[in-house]
Amino acid sequence: MLTRQKCLLYMIEKAGRPVTHLELTKWAFLLAREMPSQGGTSFYDFLPYKLGPFSFMLYHEVDDLVQNGYLRNDKTGERETWSRVQDVEAATSDIPGGLRADASRVVERFATKTSEELLDYVYDKFPWYTANSNRKKLRKRPVSSCAVHTIGYEQCSVDQLLDTLMRQGIAQIIDVRQNPIARRYGFHKSTLLRLASNVDIGYVHFPELGIPSELRQDLRDERAYASLFDEYVKNILPRQQGAVAKVSDLMSQKPSVLLCMEADPAKCHRTRLADAVSSRTKLPVKNLRGATCEPILS
């Protein structure tokens, strides 16, 4: 079990009662934002949602805790709650001391507050996370001008990715992976489409603009990457001019981003595709993660 999951269990244990979904989410958020440990390494990321800061990953992992018998879904009045299954052991005692103390402080401080008091505190302190709220909006989502934006999700949670896109004013993901399958939660095509739509970001997929996996073997150095991308420009893109034209039209109509896996744009074919789209549209290329870079040349 991951330390961040143990931390969720510990906060419910510390509360000594069923905890509403809203409470646990906001407590985890405050642990990450206001405590010295910040939830420890690889804690949850958050994005603006219907009632302020939210984490799709947190909900996904809580579902796992329920399925594995550590938590139980209950209902207290009209509110959905999570409760600890008392006869199932979980090693919350081995949570690092600083993180354990921080989690305890969060629960002690906020467990006695009503939901409205908790929301008022979070909204006032962290107004960006109200941008999608159906309760009260204290910030507006920006809207970017059209450009050939690109991004890679490597070493990034789906919550962090979607939050970044919202902060950058992106309205649509253009997925250019040939095989949009990922072990990490949130990046499989169907899951990413669903989660993105939940925060009003569109999703389209152009598998024909990806690179076949068999061509991506043994990429050990810059020369290998250069050879791969030369192959992409000379033999793949020329056969997919219809798809390039469609992507160019989409990127000219509303702020969109080319999405692939690699964080470094210099190691991803999207850089060459971005150049092709930029040539058609005359829009500038803007990389949302990683340094702005020149393509690797052979």
Number of helical runs? Answer: 10
Structural class assignment: alpha/beta
Order of neighbouring strands in the sheet with most strands? 8-7-9-6-10
Shape: elongated
> According to CATH, what is the class of the largest domain?
Alpha Beta
**In this structure, how is the largest beta sheet organized?**
5 strands, parallel
Low-confidence stretches: 291-298
Termini separation (Å)? 45 Å
> Percent helix among the residues?
40-55%
Element string (H = helix, E = strand)? HEHEEHEEHHEHEHEHHEHE
Q: Compute the CA-based radius of gyration.
A: 22 Å
Taken together, the total number of domains comes to 2
Assess the beta-strand content as a share of residues. Answer: 5-15%
Per CATH, what is the topology of the largest domain?
Cobalt-precorrin-4 Transmethylase, domain 1
- The number of distinct β-strands equals 10
Instruction: Report the CATH architecture of the largest domain.
Output: 3-Layer(aba) Sandwich
- Overall pLDDT metric: 91
Care to describe what's here?
With 298 residues, the chain is α/β, with parallel strands linked by helices. The chain folds into two domains: 3-130, no CATH class; 148-287, 3-Layer(aba) Sandwich (Cobalt-precorrin-4 Transmethylase, domain 1). It has ten helices and ten strands. The protein starts with a helix and ends in an 11-residue tail after the last strand.
